[in-house]
Amino acid sequence: MENMQNVAIAKEIKGKIIGAEQILFLLTQAHDGEYTETIDIVRSTLSEVMELADGIE
């Protein structure tokens, strides 16, 4: 039962990460090179979290 809850939470987290990645894409387009380093750091962190969520499923 607990494993099923963990999988459901992981799927929800992955959905949020996908949404955040889409926002980062829009920010990248809107700021034309500004905040590139910050966006890259956030994108990298999101990728790491996605890998962790994949491990839960």
For the largest beta-sheet, the strand count, sense and barrel status come to: none
**Helices and strands, in N-to-C order?**
HH
Radius of gyration: 14 Å
Strand-residue proportion: under 5%
Q: Can you count the helices?
A: 2
Annotation, overall tally of beta strands: 0
Structural commentary:
It is a single chain. The protein is mainly alpha-helical and 57 residues long. It has helices spanning 2-31, 36-56. Helix 1 (2-31) runs antiparallel to helix 2 (36-56). The protein is elongated. The mean pLDDT is 87.
Topology:
Blueprint: H1 2-31, H2 36-56
Condensed summary:
With 57 residues, the protein is an all-alpha fold.
Notable features of this structure?
2 helices; 57 residues; mainly alpha
